[in-house]
């Protein structure tokens, strides 16, 4: 048992603290990445919707462009037809004038008059056809103007959509920056309360060899609370937990409610297997039951359940990889860590 030992650690192992600090940093980075991924997911949904709208607008512009091309082709054909009719009209008028001159000098005046009448009728028909063609060209010009106005409106809508997308991206970037600042402030504030809490615990528990501060956590040798292979709290362990419960109740009053913190109680064992008559199936189960026993006792002393977490790590997180009895004793432990949910 660690309580009966007279040997003390000859040096301080800073490696677990470094690992925990690095783990906290990695968890923070993972959390930030998760937030950015969620933000990117919603942004991609919004951009996908805008891409669909842009595709529809582009398709409509293509259809309108094709229609405009067809109208222009039709206009060109009509203009060619009008030019042809005007040429025919000029030729007919020239023929009429020639015949009229010939009719005036002909001996048979009645025959000349009949011919001139037929040419006049033909000229009237050609003038009427020309007028109809000109009217159709005017209608086509009006339609082309309307199409151009519609294309201009669609281009304006595309420009507004692109501008809105740029504004959304800037807004999301600003939100991400503000979130980073808020998270950094929360982490810094919780670190201050953690330092105050651990300082108070040092004063309460005193300088004991079986209770150490490693990085950002308190480490109790398992023998402080439990007999070998058991998960029932010893009377001496309850006395130590009474001190811890008092400090936690004071801490709850000090930390602002908007900081979402918990005290995590971690159970650890050494690597050696349990005995055949052990009530537990594995070291993992033993470590979890020990953590739960500590949490339940703290709750019975008035600590809020929502501020406590019990976790069992079995033999899989050793702080000493040696195979000596001293190494095994160091690995059998209960750790307390003040952290965010």
List the helices and strands and how they pair.
Layout: H1 15-105, H2 109-205, E1 211-214, E2 217-221, H3 235-254, E3 261-268, H4 283-300, E4 308-312, H5 325-331, E5 333-340
Parallel strand pairs: 3-4
Antiparallel strand pairs: 1-2, 2-5, 3-5
Can I get a quick summary?
With 341 residues, the protein is an alpha+beta fold. The protein has helices at 15-105, 109-205, 235-254, 283-300, 325-331, and strands at 211-214, 217-221, 261-268, 308-312, 333-340.
Report on this model:
It contains 5 helices and 5 strands, in the order H-H-E-E-H-E-H-E-H-E. Strand 1 and strand 2 (217-221) form a beta hairpin. The chain has a 5-stranded mixed beta sheet with strand order 1-2-5-3-4. The protein is an alpha+beta fold and 341 residues long. Helix 2 (109-205) packs across helix 3 and helix 3 (235-254) packs across helix 4 (283-300). It has 2 domains: 41-185, Orthogonal Bundle (Helix Hairpins); 207-340, 60s Ribosomal Protein L30, Chain: A. Residues 1-10 have low confidence and may be disordered. It starts with 14 loop residues before the first helix and ends with a strand.
């Amino acid at each position: 048992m660690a309580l009966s030992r007279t040997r003390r650690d000859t040096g301080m192992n800073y490696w677990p603290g470094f690992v925990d600090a690095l783990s906290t940093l990695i968890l923070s980075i993972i959390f930030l990445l998760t937030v950015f991924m969620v933000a990117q997911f919603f942004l991609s949904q919004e951009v996908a919707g805008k891409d669909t709208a842009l595709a529809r607008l582009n398709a409509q512009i293509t259809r309108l462009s094709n229609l405009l091309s067809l109208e222009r082709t039709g206009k060109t054909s009509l203009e060619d037809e009008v030019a042809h009719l005007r040429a025919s009209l000029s030729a007919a008028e020239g023929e009429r004038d020639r015949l009229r001159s010939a009719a005036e000098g002909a001996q048979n005046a009645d025959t000349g008059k009949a011919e001139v009448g037929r040419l006049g009728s033909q000229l009237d028909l050609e003038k009427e056809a020309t007028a109809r063609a000109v009217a159709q060209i005017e209608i086509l010009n009006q339609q082309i103007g309307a199409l151009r106005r519609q294309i201009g409106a669609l281009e304006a809508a595309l420009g507004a959509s692109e501008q809105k997308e740029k504004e959304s991206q800037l807004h999301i970037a600003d939100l991400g920056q503000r979130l980073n600042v808020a998270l950094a402030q929360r982490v810094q504030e919780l670190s201050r309360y953690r330092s105050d809490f651990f300082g108070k615990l040092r004063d309460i528990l005193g300088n004991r060899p079986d209770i150490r501060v490693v990085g950002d956590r308190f480490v109790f040798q398992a023998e402080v609370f439990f007999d070998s292979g058991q998960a029932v709290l010893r009377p001496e362990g309850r006395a130590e937990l009474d001190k811890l419960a008092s400090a936690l109740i004071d801490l709850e009053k000090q930390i602002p409610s908007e900081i979402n913190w918990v005290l995590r109680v971690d159970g650890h064992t050494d690597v050696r297997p349990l005995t055949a008559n052990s009530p537990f199936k594995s070291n993992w189960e033993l470590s979890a039951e020990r953590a739960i026993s500590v949490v339940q006792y703290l709750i019975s002393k008035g600590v809020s359940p929502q501020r406590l977490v019990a976790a069992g790590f079995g033999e899989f997180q050793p702080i000493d990889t040696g195979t000596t009895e001293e190494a095994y004793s160091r690995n059998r432990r209960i750790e307390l860590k003040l952290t965010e949910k």
